[in-house]
TrEMBL record:
Originating organism: Rosa chinensis
Residues covered by the DUF659 domain: 12-154
UniProt signal peptide: none
Listed name of the protein: Putative ribonuclease H-like domain-containing protein
Lineage: Eukaryota, Viridiplantae, Streptophyta, Embryophyta, Tracheophyta
Amino acid sequence: MVAKYGPGFQPPSSHELRTWILKEEVEDVQKLMVAHKKDWSHYGCTIMSDGWTDGKSRVILNFLVNSSKGTWFLKSVDASDTIKNGELMLNYLDNIVEEVGEENVVQIVTDNASNYKWAGKELMKHRSKLWWTPCAAHCIDLMLEDISKMKVFES
């Protein structure tokens, strides 16, 4: 910013950032969201879930929605106490489908862990119009890990 406006540039105050600037940004994001939701209802969408562990050893699940309009970050949840429980994973996925609108969701993509497999299959039983699909990259990673354990590759 300084390079663009010169050394006299005055950045916004913390008060400006947390009041009118934040309000304008929220309004802009909400307008973008309307366009994405319209696309979801017209063409359908995919819900994607990705988990990772942060620096404090918390398991964070990110939920994203992908459509022809692009990928939209929906939310993150701390799943540290629930990640291994298929029933609770089913609950997370079911709630996300409700939030996006079951009529809009074509498929759900998750990793291939047993809790996700179980939750995905159960979700398809209750919501017969959508598909659960394991992430291809995660499947390939698991296959390569198994191959690397073969005696022929031991050093």
